[in-house]
Amino acid sequence: MKPICIVWIFLDLVFAYNVAKWRRGVLPVIATLAMMMAVFGLIAIPSWVDREGFGYAQPALSSGLLGSLTAILVALQVLVIIASMYAFRQQWNVEVEHWPAEEGDALPAGA
Questions:
Q1: Residue 23 contacts residue 93 (beta carbons within 8 Å)
Q2: Residue 99 within any structural domain of the chain
């Protein structure tokens, strides 16, 4: 499980770098990964809270705290999905070129 977590962290760092460089192509991928993590988090919340049963080892943190942290993580992933889709819709990487008018106000050819 640790290699998967390390790969996930590495992907998040690569995507954060690409967003910082104004590359919007990764935004749908970020939303997809956030959706996957949110689904897994929603599935994991009840199992973290119900760890009081027989046969479960007591984690270093209380089960209620782990359930709360997982719920916060799910909420953050939903915010990431909303923010990435909003940014993708804004088309903030599209540049608009403005050409000088082809009228008499243009500079002479020798200038």
A1: yes
A2: no
For residue 109, tell me if it sits in a domain. no
Rounded Cα distance, 97 and 53, in Å: 65
pLDDT tens digits, residue range 96-108? 666 666 555 555 5
Q: Other CB atoms closer than 10 Å to residue 80's CB: what's the count?
A: 18
How does pLDDT run across 47-77, given as a tens digit for each residue?
878 776 677 777 788 888 888 999 999 999 9
Asked whether residue 108 is domain-assigned, the answer is: no
What is the tally of structural domains in the chain? 1
Q: What is the dihedral of CA 97, 102, 107, 111, to 10 degrees?
A: 80
Using 50, 70 and 90 to split pLDDT, how confident is the model at 93? low
Range of the domain at 29: 2-90
- Phi/psi for 21 (5° steps) reads -90, 10
Which pLDDT value is given to residue 107?
Answer: 57
